[in-house]
UniProtKB/TrEMBL annotation:
Entry-linked PANTHER family: ARAC-FAMILY TRANSCRIPTIONAL REGULATOR, HTH-TYPE TRANSCRIPTIONAL REGULATOR RV1931C
High-level lineage: Bacteria, Bacillati, Actinomycetota, Actinomycetes, Propionibacteriales
Protein's recorded name: DJ-1/PfpI family protein
Protein's organism: Kribbella alba
The HTH araC/xylS-type domain, residue ranges: 216-305
Keyword list, A-Z: Signal, Transcription, Transcription regulation
Length: 305
């Protein structure tokens, strides 16, 4: 079944906070990844911060644990005393998360999650202009400054504006695989990466901040087959270059050898599986390690990247 992605629209929302992740999930759906998008609001028409009116539906679709609610940010050089959502909407956010679903925010959308009680006891981030204000407003939560996004117990928060794209691509990579996210990124022409030190940031995307086509082609292969045994000679033959040239060009573009890049993808996927209840042994098998010893070594001394 396709994953439902519901965008909760509020007055004066920023267009890019909405359009960035919406474009990513829509593109993923066009590529066959299975996403259905919905736009819900407490009123039938929302006027954005940029003056563009948007029609929204009042009724929520039926959601399950695999589905996602995204709250885009709104114009907020200084936050109002209360976020622009009512009690029923706050309960909807709480109920979806309690049922096992994911909730996400872009920029000041974190204020809505905080008002729903979803930030308490969790780490989160927001736009740098709002960190002090939100930190004071939600003292039971832990603000993480100067990062693109943070994932904590199915609550995903991002810094704002274009970082909503980073958040969406990360979720696509986790749910549909690194290859799918890479294809979406290429369609959207968003290879460039910005600084961020959160492990939730997709390794695939973090090493796509270059313009070398040969390296991108090799990454496309590894992204789609990272759980397989990939020989350097096969990668080189598939691209039509020597092993020496492949290693030199790939390392210069990404900062990693092809093997280390593959290991980083495996480690990231394994950490996600373990975080969702899988044993180390089971995660190791899924990502392609013959036994769990290599995974344990990588987890104890994560490879650079």
């Amino acid at each position: 079944m396709p994953t439902k992605v519901v965008f909760l629209l509020v007055p004066k929302l920023h267009l890019l906070d909405l359009a960035g992740p919406a474009q990513a999930f829509s593109t993923a759906n066009d590529l066959g990844c299975g996403y259905d998008l919905y736009y819900v609001a407490e009123v039938e028409e929302i006027v954005t911060a940029q003056g563009v009116p948007i029609k929204a539906q009042r009724e929520w679709p039926d959601l399950g644990p695999a589905d996602l609610i995204v709250v885009p940010g709104w114009r907020s050089p200084k936050l109002s005393p209360h976020p622009p959502i009512g009690a029923a909407t706050k309960q909807r956010l709480r109920g979806h998360h309690a049922a096992g679903g994911q909730v996400a925010s872009v920029c000041s959308g974190a204020d809505a999650l905080g008002a729903a009680g979803l930030l308490d006891g969790r780490r989160y981030t927001t736009h740098h202009d709002l960190t002090d204000e939100l930190a004071a407003r939600y003292p039971k939560a832990s603000i993480v400054r100067d990062v693109l996004y943070v994932v904590d117990d199915r609550v995903i928060t991002s810094a704002g504006i274009a970082s909503g794209i980073d958040l969406a691509l990360h979720l696509i990579a986790v749910e549909r695989g690194a290859e799918a996210a890479a294809r979406v990124a290429r369609e959207m022409v968003v290879y460039a990466r910005r600084n961020g030190d959160e492990p939730q940031e997709s390794a695939m995307l973090r090493h796509r901040g270059h313009l070398n086509d040969l390296a991108h082609r090799v990454q496309d292969v590894i992204d789609g087959r990272y759980s397989e045994q990939l020989r350097l000679s096969d990668l080189a033959d598939g691209i039509g270059v020597s092993e020496r040239t492949l290693t030199r060009v790939f390392s210069r573009a990404t900062g990693l050898t092809p093997l280390r890049y593959q290991q980083l993808l495996r480690l990231e996927r394994a950490e996600h599986l373990i975080g969702h209840g899988a044993t180390v042994e089971a995660a190791a098998r899924v990502v392609g390690f013959e036994d769990a010893r290599m995974l344990r070594r990588l987890r104890s001394r994560p490879i650079a990247g």
